[in-house]
Amino acid sequence: MRRTITTDLAPKAIGPYSQGVENDGWVWVSMQLPIDPETGMMIDGDIALKAAQVIENIESIVKEAGGELSDIAKITLYLADMDDFADVNRAFERYFTSAPPARAALEVSKLPLGAKVAMDAVAKID
């Protein structure tokens, strides 16, 4: 049965969509931006710090669904500038120390709210 995932530990949706949706143990996390859930504002800092905030937002949604970072099977990474790829990898190395998820990385011309990095994720919770 389909279940909507909502948590105050991740930014509220900025449109008509859910933070996440769970169905039969699969969790689809909507695109997350480097927004501090407490302030609702984009964080300052370098791209690695911004990527870390995005991962923490994803983690909060997956945890609300009953999972953890290690349950994430796939992340899609959206970058405003592919030259930031190596710096974003620093954040991934910090959060995914063993068995990192599959990942796709795309350079896009524009992200919501002028963000430089965004991600969405799919997790499988047993």
SSE map:
Elements: E1 3-5, E2 20-23, E3 26-32, H1 47-64, E4 72-79, H2 85-95, E5 102-107, E6 117-124
Parallel strand pairs: 4-5
Antiparallel strand pairs: 1-2, 2-3, 3-6, 4-6
What is the total number of structural domains? 1
Give the topology string: H per helix, E per strand: EEEHEHEE
Return the average pLDDT rounded to an integer.
96
- As a whole number of angstroms, the C-alpha radius of gyration is 14 Å
* Largest sheet geometry: 6 strands, mixed
Uncertain residue ranges: none
Instruction: Give the second-level CATH assignment, the architecture.
Output: 2-Layer Sandwich
Shape, per Cα inertia axes: globular
What does this structure look like?
With 126 residues, the protein is α+β, with helices and mostly antiparallel strands. It has one domain (3-124): 2-Layer Sandwich (60s Ribosomal Protein L30, Chain: A), CATH 3.30.1330.40. The chain is built from two helices and six strands; from the N terminus they run βββαβαββ. It has helices at 47-64, 85-95, and strands at residues 3-5, 20-23, 26-32, 72-79, 102-107, 117-124. A six-stranded mixed beta sheet has the order 1-2-3-6-4-5, with helices on one face. A hairpin with a 2-residue loop joins strand 2 (20-23) and strand 3. The two termini are 15 Å apart.
